[in-house]
Amino acid sequence: MKLSILFIFLFATLSSVSQTIVSGIVTDNKDNPIEGANVYLDGTYDGTTTNENGEFSFKTDEAGEKILKISFLAYETFSLSKDVSALNNLKIKLRDDINALDTVVISAGTFSAGDNSKISVLKPLDVVTTASALGDFVGALQTLPGTTTVAEDGRLFVRGGEADETQIFIDGIRVFTPYVPTTSNTPTRGRYSPFLFDGITFSTGGYSAEYGQALSSVLLLNTIEEPDQEKTDIGIMSVGAVLGHTEKWETSSLSVNGAYINLAPYVALFPDRNDWIEPFQGGSGEAVFRKKLNNGLLKMYSAFEFSSFDLIQEDINFPEGIHNKLNNKNLYFNGSYKGVLSNNWSVFGGLSYTYNKIDFEVIDDKIEDKENSYHAKFKMKHHFNNRFKLNFGAEYFSTNFNENYNNPFINEISYGFKNNISAAFTEVDVFFSKNLALKTGLRLEYSELFKELTLSPRISLAYKTSAKSQISLAYGNFYQNPNNNILKFEQDLNAENTRHYILNYQLNNEGKIFRAEAYYKQYDNLIKYDTEYADFTSNYNNSGTAYAKGIDLFWRDNKSIKNLDYWVSYSFLDSERDYKNYPITATPNFVNTHNLSVVTKYWIENWKSQIGMSYSFASGRTYTNPNLEGFLNQKTKSYNSLSLNWAYLISQQKILYFSVNNVLGIKNINGYQYADAPDINGNYASRALRPAADQFFFVGFFWTISEKGTDNQLDNL
Amino acid sequence: MTQIKQLIVIVAIVLTGSIQSQTDYEKAMEKAFSLWEVEGLTAAEQFFERIANAEPNEWLPNYYVAQINSLKSWEEKDANIIKAQLDKAQTFLDVAKSISKDNPEILVMQAHIYTNWVVFDGAFYGMKYGATISELYEKAYRLAPENPRVVFSKADWGYGSAQYFGQDTAPYCKEIEKSLELFANFKPETNFSPTWGKERAEQVLKECK
């Protein structure tokens, strides 16, 4: 009896639960039904899949207030909290997921390499497999449109801007002295080894309010967050050797890397146009330590480098040549913390310190430059939702520069300056829809040196015109204090200024990218002086102006031909300046009207080899011929160079690498030097400025030793 | 006597109750597997997703959502969808990882997801994930040297690389042979634990010979 009651009771509990029907229809924001969406009550197994009409209907035993969830790939998950009895005949519109890959991206001015960006035109590996680049990240970026070919310099000249108008940042923190010093006829290289970075963003204009003190361009390098395995890398090259090791622990890792370069054997084998007393030699050590903390990541990077050379260089005014000697010591430290706070807040703090000492000797002059600089930055980000993000922060730059000048005929003099700048910035990212996005910000800077406050607004807008294409617009106002070469002589000045206007079109079709960008840049407050060279006796003012306008085109395709990846860049640049000691407005000597680069990479399966080619063409650059009327009145012949490389994978861990720059041995001319005084016929004698060597050969063997042995240094080349 | 009966009944009810709450999950998992067979991947995926949502302490439903998305990406042509599928697989596998740490089955699935990225774009993801995949297999092997999926997947990856570089594939074939023995004797921990891989191992072994 009792038993049966119990059974009845039990039975009743099981079946007496009343069932409710949950039903409705799911569409996108254009009322098209969505088929296959997952509809369910959160925390239960009850649910179903929408049919071809977007309809759903299912029974549930649940009662009371429940959360109905609807999820579908590429849409934001929908949630509705209601009493189950009210969950019927629903009409639900799913919103596009702004994080989805086909969302519009603000792309004006920006080239990205990496996988975190939806608009990557380059992959991290490209930086090191581009034939002409010789493993230098700057060299690889010179194959992108917007850069000009100043072959003897090696730094980045962007859209009619001088090289020092481009600033380089590692993990968001400024690098004050990014380039290795070289002789005047040899291109420089970036100091930092490319395989430390897994993300590179190169902006040729219109960049975010987070970045300042750059008139033309910013280059953002991000160090690898987590190395993939423990390994030892050994590299033996025709110009030196490299050794690296990575050690991993539970939550941290350390990579150290050392390199020694000595060009003595190379120049003994292939003499160049310099008369070397002591050929270039350099040593560097780098270490990166990363530690994962509970809610964030701490990275510490430091690099030490020394380099020296001693030579006699040809000069039209000194038949015996000019003696040039240089010693450089450079120390760089960069530490940053990136973390997540609660409630969609994230925080970033970083600090960099640079010590740079250069001793030069030029004939009888002895000059010693010392720079101590640091940069501290703090920023916060609030992610209100996928459609609205706020970023703000503050930073402080400090440069302390001192120069000692020593000459047998005068007493030693010492001079310098302190250039301290504080800045605050704020920026919002707004997605109105998957097709329309806006980024706008404001940057405020105060220069202690000039007691000057500057305000720079920035705005960019992107609109998706079709599934594969988009247009972007950008405007920005940028300030930068004059460089060390001016500030060491005169500090009563103002910041130089430029404004960028950019229109960008981008088509991205599965392995094929086409970009076209038109821009106009207006420069104001450029420094002018009234002597041949900037020195103590010069009178300086901020009355200089300039403009640059042009079109940049980029095409990349790695799909059409199997195993072939290639890109073509073309830039048209029209720029004139009235600055420095220019008597009139003229096109400066670092501007090429036409620049073309073609880079190809072909993988030959049977040979386990990648063959790379890069070709660059640049129209002539201006120079002043004193035998004729006018200023910057002539142009050199155009520049041409074809480079080849071959990377051969001997095994998974061993790579043999060859490269030749300027295979055809084309005799390029970078400009002309004229005698200070005319000869008896009233003619100024001239000398062509040629590169130290027309060609450069490189052979290297790279070996990676790891526990498993599948990693190699292809990304080291 | 009746008291004893009563006791038995009560015990039975308590037991049924506890079994009942377990069978809810088990029933659901069974249904998900039958959906997989009858209605296909998407229906099963969505059901696993619901189970994953309702059972925050079970790694298996998350694991299967990851596996199904990983499998689906093989059939897909649209690059945007492939990326979204692999991202979804990763999201669910991350949840599985947070529930069950150092689980060799999850490590193998992680290696498979990365391998799919490599298949999707070898030039880029090969460099990015190549070494990580090897490291995952090493770690899984240290944890479970007798798990057939670990042994097979590790050998399969090694076989592929050796073949590519024209090196001797024999040691990997031997390992695959060994994995088949392990498959034959494998006892899954639960009714819903992963059991896949045998057919693929047989197929690769055929290529070996």
UniProtKB/TrEMBL annotation, chain A:
Family: Belongs to the TonB-dependent receptor family.
Topology of this chain in the membrane: Multi-pass membrane protein
Subcellular location field: Cell outer membrane
Record-level GO cellular component terms: cell outer membrane
Stretches assigned to the TonB-dependent receptor plug domain: 136-213
Keyword set, alphabetical order: Cell outer membrane, Membrane, Receptor, Signal, Transmembrane, Transmembrane beta strand, Transport
SUPFAM superfamilies xrefs: Carboxypeptidase regulatory domain-like, Porins
InterPro entries registered for this protein in UniProt: Beta-barrel_TonB_sf, CarboxyPept-like_regulatory, Plug_dom, Plug_dom_sf, TonB-dep_rcpt-like
Signal sequence segment: 1-18
Superkingdom of this protein's organism: Bacteria
Protein's UniProt name: Outer membrane cobalamin receptor
UniProt-recorded Gene Ontology molecular function terms: siderophore uptake transmembrane transporter activity
UniProt record, GO biological process: siderophore transmembrane transport
From TrEMBL, chain B:
Organism: Xanthomarina spongicola
Protein name listed in UniProt: Tetratricopeptide repeat protein
InterPro entries cross-referenced by the UniProt entry: TPR-like_helical_dom_sf
